[in-house]
Amino acid sequence: MPPVVNSIAPAQGPVSGGTTVVITGTGLTGATAVRFGSLNASSYSVSSATQITAVTPAGSAGSVPVTVTSPSGTSNATVTFTYTAAVPPVVTGLSPSGGPTSGGTTVTVTGTGLTGATQVRFGSVGASTFSVVSATQITAVSPAGSPGTVPVTVTTPGGTSAAVPASYFFYAAAPVLTAISPSAGPTAGGNTVTLTGQNLQNAGDVRFGALSATVDAVSPTQLTVTSPAGSGLVTVTVTTPGGVSNALTYAYVTAPVLNTVSPSVGAAAGSTAVTLTGTGLTTATAVTVDGVPASFTVLSDTQMAAVIPPGPAGGAAVQVTTAGGTSGAVIFQRIPAPVI
């Protein structure tokens, strides 16, 4: 009596073949052939008189009868296996979508049909490593690359995904800082600072020491930022998808204090050379007398020489401006010329 096939599980698989199936029935002992349509199974083993395990050969989309042949004949052809057409995977997004040219960025690839992925490529270069999380997600580590964009593609038994806008990964060159201006500012922060360099586009973070600055304007060669509050000397760095830049130095300067002006009186009609004393005077950028600029020379952190210009008789407010801000005023008395 010929064998009888009752069922097959699973009952479908890809046209590429390679699906392991379990065939159940009766009279399967001594099977000499297992066929999927007209094609022999890639391999099979008889487990018992009621069960055979077989591997499907490659085939064409559609259903084919599964038969078992033994010395007593060939089974019925009423149980079928369905070959499903190969569907290539689709990449719908990357997170993050950029990283440094040195590679090493862990990227989450999302899409469809990602199960069974055999390769993930960044352009023409294979990912350093990858793991299939699910049919809709793969985690991959970017290899080293050159500055610019490359498509990320996934290969499965169903084919290779197409390059679409959402599948492009941007390799960013590392940012480089060459100058900072001004290089000092008040401890209260709020100073507008210009950073110049290269590869500064897409700056995600600018740090003054451990604190983030507010980024006001961005271009590939220049950043304008507002300094946070701070103290002492700190390093300034820029972070982009290309990595972290070299460091430049920024000095937080306390506001200047003026204590005395000597002499404190002089002729209103003429210029008077004076000595200003106080603290925090090293970075002085201006001396004003009632708002009018005066010439000056910084002698030390605690002393300056200045020239009071002519002006109206009476008290005049003398102030010093440094990188740390503007001091309070000391009063210089202008004396009118005597009337004869």
UniProtKB/TrEMBL annotation:
The keyword Signal applies. It comes from Streptomyces murinus. One of its GO terms (biological process) is carbohydrate metabolic process. This is IPT/TIG domain-containing protein. Keywords: Signal. It comes from the Bacteria. InterPro entries: Fibrocystin, Ig-like_fold, Ig_E-set, IPT_dom. SUPFAM superfamilies: E set domains (SSF81296). Residues 2-84, 88-172, 174-253, 255-335 form the IPT/TIG domain. Pfam families: TIG.
